[in-house]
Protein 1
Amino acid sequence: MTNKFFYLLYLVPLLCFSQQENSRYTLDINNFYGKILKHTEEISQFTDKRQEGILISLNRKTYGEKPWQSRYNYPDYGLSFQYQNMNYEALGHFYGLYGHYNFYFFQRNLMFRIAQGIAYNTNPYDAVTNPENQAYGTHWMPATYFMLNYKKEKIWNGLGVQAGLSFFHHSNANLRTPNKSTNTLALNIGAVYDFESKEPLQYIEHKDSVRYTEPIRYNLVFRTGFNESDLVGSGQFPFYVFSAYADKRLSRISAIHIGADFFIYKYLKETVKRIAADPNLNVSPDTDYRKGGIFVGHELFINRLSLETQFGYYAYAPLDYLPPIYQRLGLKYYLADEIFMGVALKTHAAKAEALEFALGVRL
């Protein structure tokens, strides 16, 4: 029940699409065909067969009724549904629901989509019935995809075409192991339909007359969730992260961060016990499993939603487990100017350690 609540919380920022007058929508359908990329030996056995699936997306156009829309060249935002046939019995099938943004370049002929949501896998790892699936340890998992398309709308009666490349990432972020994950690179081709093709879209341009700036602000954040060590079957444990950082807005769309994290990962407490039991490793059972880190970061603002990227270093880490450099990539949603919630993936390069759910205050 707790995990279902977390996944619901995870989708909240992505589903907060405002219902405004004069909304204009498009529907696009893409078929995709590709392959799983080899990134670990455990995944190499699943890289031969073709991947295939379909993406169905509903998009709401923007035309500058709010200033942020003009700053980002009038993006679309919406919901997309994904079906992917993994073509390996051990990997099953995927059904995903995502929130996405479409950004436009080169006279709006080139579209770049960023999508984040949840996916359901039909055949995750099971020690008895499906031991070959080292990629996914759970049915439900967070998922991400990116799409780069050449797009030509309204060629005939509101109907247009698009084609390009897609990249799909499926991983449960160590909510439960195994979690080797899969990355699929695919070619996609499809059609797009504008429901109001006869009405011309009038863009409203907003220009800042003065440079936007703010004084340094201070943030306090509490992050939590559940994860498991790489030892399959070792059990899920809660974790708690306390963060404090200063941010400096460079413009209306950008800010930089500098701060510190304090990590309490309960799975590491059990890891200390397991490592200390091995006489060859020379680790004391009293070794502190907690960690402290310092980080720098950047935040990109899109309306009340923002994309957060941070790079950190463990300044305090008595237990030598995982590399000393860590990264955090996440989404934040500002409930008010001073209060935000968010979700982030904490990793060590390509290895995910935790999916963090956050609540913070900006002082």
Protein 2
Amino acid sequence: MKKFTASLLVLILTALLVMPAVMGASPAPAPVVGEIQSSVSFRSAPSTSSTVYKYLKAGDNVVILEKTNASWYKVQDVFGTVAYVSSSDKYIEIIYNASIVSSVSFRKSASTEGTRLRYLSKGESVLITGQPNSAWYAVTDSHGVKGYVSSSEQYISIGASFSLPSGTKPGSGSGGGTTPNAPQLIENAIAAGMKYWGTPYEFGSDRDNTKTFDCSDFVRTAFREGANLTLPADSRKQGDYVKAKGATKSDWRSLKRGDLMFFMEYKGSKASNYAGVNKATETITHVGIYLGNGQILHTYSTASGGVRTNDIAGGQWENRFLFGGSVL
């Protein structure tokens, strides 16, 4: 199995918002995350004769909503599109299939006498690789370390679309729900924002309805609906909120998925228009949500068509960027 990296922790995708409706579970179960191993068709139905929406590339991550049959997974990609991919190991590998519900010992052997490697923390995503007995799961953590944890639902929640490897049986830990962790809340917020795609822009929009948005109203709505977090009502105060949380970044490439991005006023389309500007003293005039992969989800003008995504690199958004960071 490929070694886990910290960057994968923020790629628990937008399916977290829809999984309860799809699977009939509430609260949302642990996500099952797959990584694409080689280019594969992203299809409208579980059949090679169905429409190909696009091709997913190696390294892309998707949430597996269900195993439709022996040959197909129903998945959701980073943009919220639900479709089907081959379940062959050649094309997709499951990298997370469970979440830690509360702090639990991570041991070298399946016994309370086993050496404790460390404590797994609430909210960590892990890969269950087997179950040596009813009381223990064999798991791999986000750093690629292998060990064992209790199978009690008090400590671990298995993804609703996951089945244990052949020859094992779920213990008392199967089927339990979890309180959403930070990555889940981020994905819920992004999914909440995505559902407003194309909603018209209006400067100073009414904060009490969702018929129109300005930039800060949109961000506030996404996090209120998706993460049950009420942010300040304007972009400058949202910037202050993020700064108060600490660890802001001035290089947008260092941001994590779901971080807020703050921008100065528009001075032109060329990088030279911003040469010599002291961004530390500039006023925030715009905010959006970083999606990863060099894209931002936001709304900024009537002419742009309302809520949408844009590439950041090489244009005004890169030139105007001041800082970014997490609200959680």
Protein 3
Amino acid sequence: MNPPRSRATGRVTLADVAQAAGVSPITVSRALRGERAVAPDLVARVQAAVQKLGYVPDPAARALASRHSTHVAVLIPLLTNALFVDLLEAVQLHLRRAGYQMLIGITHYDPAEEEQLLREQLVHRPAGLIVTGFDRHERTRALIEQSGVPCVHVMETSDVPGQYSVGLSQAEAGAALTRHLLERGRQRIAFAAAQLDPRVMQRLEGWRRELQAAGLYDARLEWLNPEPSSLALGSRMFEQIIAHKPGVDAIFFCNDDLAQGALLAAARHRVAVPRRVAIAGFNDLTGSDLTNPPLTTVRTPRAQIGTVATQMLLRLMRGEAVTPTSVDLGFELVVRGST
């Protein structure tokens, strides 16, 4: 026997589930939301009816009935970078536990694309927003502010009143790694960067600051390439730096995949690491502890940033006061054999 269907849409409705389970529609709704006030035997009956009828909740109907959306828009630059994957995993885990869905938008580090994605998302009136960093068009900032949708910024921090953020000081992390190289006796330290997004440039600023303080800054040691970060590019950049800057005794790569590629190139060209040149990365991506030699890097708390940012956003969506508005989760300098 076929399950009952809504005459208007052909969909199995919440009322159909209630009838099959022998409970009221409000009990079905509460059971599906996981409210503890619903008795376990009633939850079991509702779940059995859901499975039997193939019921799928209608998020649009739920939003209309409650005047609240069930999704959160999350805008990140890339999915090919593992650090954003780690962040998204944590965001989804905590959103799902709270009954929300995540809608992902990929900006490709393009402010115009971010603006368009945000406009598209706001049409659906999301319950909340998570966006990456603070570098965006003024129009986009105005959209966020005027929407009234709670918003949390990730990967960076801000002391601007009314801005909620969870991240770390990228500049201080870059400075800490540079200090480590100086303490190891390195004096000609190159900074090799790809993508050139705002957080990379903040790491560059930390590198500059420390070398200027040591009287060792040389603008010619800035090796900047706007191409996407990759092992292949890191390998190529290493070869270029060694060929054109023979006095370099350390290279700070802005991301681990570049540094991993550099280590492969060093092995290929028989350049001793760290005796001839030290190599360091950033973000402690998968495999950095397995390179030869293991890569010195900065470990960033991507999953923790996702967790704390989502918890902050959930409180904002409930209308609760959130303090502090900015959370700096710090970083960890991980010293391994490459330096």
Protein 4
Amino acid sequence: MSRKEVAKLAGVSEATVSRVLNNVGPMKEDTRERVLQAAAELGYVPNALAQQFARRKSGNIGVILPFVPKVHLFSTYYFSEILSGIGETVKRCGYDLLLIFREPDGARDYAKLFRTQKIDACIVLGSENVPEERAALAELKAGGFPFCLMNQRYDEESYRTVDADHVAGSMAAVRHLIEQGSRSIAFVNGPQQYSNSADRLEGYMVALEEAGIAYEPKLVYAGNYSRKSGYVLAGQLAKQIQAGSIDAVFAANDRMAIGLMQGLRELALEAGRHYALVGYDDSDGSRIISPQLSTVAVPFYEMGKLAAARLLETEQNDELTEPERDLLPVILVQRETSGIKNEKV
């Protein structure tokens, strides 16, 4: 059946049928009823895409992701868990998920996605504190477009954000190492353009201060959250462990911790025997590797669900509320790598 046939049976124009079925604009109640009755009699079901276009809605929630060459993004615990959480909520609410990959040096015209009606709201993953990103987010805010940042914040701006309490998580990890007897704790952190890297550093420093241990910048190493970056740092840390100037390591995520473990093992240094180690994320790899990795569990799946729910609350209410930050708790998970048997190297 076509819209034309519905219009003929109801005695109205096709445009009126379109307005009634898409609930657009004012309409006399008797006209609305005639159109709905005619559609029911004819078994007419309007095309979903046509409905969305008439409402100027795409039906898509966008997720902006970083494109990283040679990295299987969806195999990483962080992205797979967050996307699973987002997808569950989006689907349950009748929306579709549109993934948008951001090239490292490409344009960041996020507002264009809204202007071209590709998305109705968006979640930004992997947002970096760089001028291009700040400008793109400022344009979204100025345009009144609904968006949410995940695991990133900008202290000078008030954006809707879903995050985990990384300061508390880092404090718990370092306190645990200190309770296990460690006093010279190295820290392998991620890039500083991410606010969660700064939060982890803050937690590390606070825990040291609480224990009366002086903060030493030379014990802080820079990785990029990849397994390879942890592996590459193994040579530098091995010398310090062998010299007795490092007895424990806190890594800002499990991938770097696992890479470090592998690199140090090749140099005859075992986690839990020659040095203590705590990672961060509680990824699948932390439970599979031997010895099992002590870590901090982050509720990435729940964060994804919450970010989508916050956006859909705004989208379905058709009005923007004041930006706010949701901060989810994390949990220290003690396993084998954070104990030391005091074996000499």
